[in-house]
Amino acid sequence: MYSDISLNRRKPTRPLISLVPMIDIMLILLVFFMVTSTYLNLDMIPALAQSDRPVPSQAAEAETVSETLLIRIGTDGSPFHQGKDFTRDELISLLTVRLNRNPALHVIILPTGGARLQSLVTVMDIVTSAGAVNMRVVRLEARQ
Amino acid sequence: MRIFRPARRHHPETIIALIDVVFFLLVFFMLIGRMDATAPFDVTPPTALTGADMPAGGITLSVAADGTMALDGEEVFLQDIDQRIQSQLEADPDILIRINAHRDAVLRDILPRIAQFEAMGARDVVLVVTPPGPAR
């Protein structure tokens, strides 16, 4: 005996996972990070490098051969040399003349303790831009 | 005579591409964003034309305009700074020390610290600067 019975199994319905809440959350996170993130372009200038420490032979040679230029920085941030205030352009020309004469010129910067950091960085910037490769920042320390 | 215009086939817009783009943007902003508090106070670094790229890692000493200091985002007293830097230097003598000082901070607050770090044996101490902004 053969009976024509067909059993149709229902196709299981696929659970629908809605993507909309995920997109909402992602957009909220995106806006949050866009608003809160601050892109800072930070650079650095070396204040103390391992190469600053001269080997004894170099130190002795530097003492005998090198020429030094002392630039002081006043409390108002203006650089002066041998008691004379220098503008930025004047300082650049002084450095250019001295560096042309002696490319190994040692530039020593002696800032007043009350000077602002920006004034020291500006002078260091000028000295580096002028082409000086030997630069040191020194400070006076009270004897105890 | 009736003319039947063929029904336009509706292309369902895929939102997968949108999700991809949003996801990439999200990851981008998460990576470049600075959520870490490098200083609990306002620090505007000085501007410099000759700054070099900032190396990664190291310790960050932040100095506010009034001389307040923070080490890796945590405000600390002067005596604690030396102690903590010393211990870090003992663990890694080549560790980089970044000084992120406000441009209006006075040098009597900064230079003695650099000298102290040098005396402790620090080899790399850098000042954080920013390149000058575009002329307005």
UniProtKB/TrEMBL annotation, chain A:
Which top-rank group of organisms is this from? Bacteria
Localization terms from the record: Cell membrane
Q: Any idea which UniProt keywords this protein has?
A: Cell membrane, Membrane, Protein transport, Transmembrane, Transmembrane helix, Transport
Report membrane topology.
Single-pass membrane protein; Single-pass type II membrane protein
Q: Is-annotated flag, keyword NAD? A: no
Q: Which GO terms describe its cellular component?
A: plasma membrane
Q: One biological-process term from Gene Ontology?
A: protein transport
Q: Name one GO molecular function term.
A: transmembrane transporter activity
Transmembrane region(s): 16-40
Gene3D superfamilies (UniProt xref): 3.30.420.270
Which family, according to the similarity comment?
Answer: Belongs to the ExbD/TolR family.
What PANTHER family does this protein map onto?
A: BIOPOLYMER TRANSPORT PROTEIN EXBD-RELATED, EXBD MEMBRANE COMPONENT OF PMF-DRIVEN MACROMOLECULE IMPORT SYSTEM
The identity of this protein, by name, is: Biopolymer transport protein ExbD
Automatic annotation (TrEMBL), chain B:
The UniProt entry's GO biological process terms, in alphabetical order, are: protein transport
Q: Where in the cell is it found?
A: Cell membrane
Query: What is one term from the GO cellular component aspect held by the record?
Result: plasma membrane
Looking at the UniProt entry, the stretches that span the membrane are: 12-32
A GO molecular function for this record?
A: transmembrane transporter activity
Instruction: Report whether Protein transport shows up as a keyword of the record.
Output: yes
Main location class: membrane
Alphabetical list of Pfam families matching this protein:
ExbD
Matching InterPro entries: ExbD
Cite the entry's keywords alphabetically.
Answer: Cell membrane, Membrane, Protein transport, Transmembrane, Transmembrane helix, Transport
The answer, when asked if Hydrolase is one of the entry's keywords, is no
How does the record classify its membrane topology? Single-pass membrane protein; Single-pass type II membrane protein
Family as reported in the entry's similarity comment: Belongs to the ExbD/TolR family.
Q: What is this protein called?
A: Biopolymer transport protein ExbD
**Organism expressing this protein natively:** Ruegeria conchae
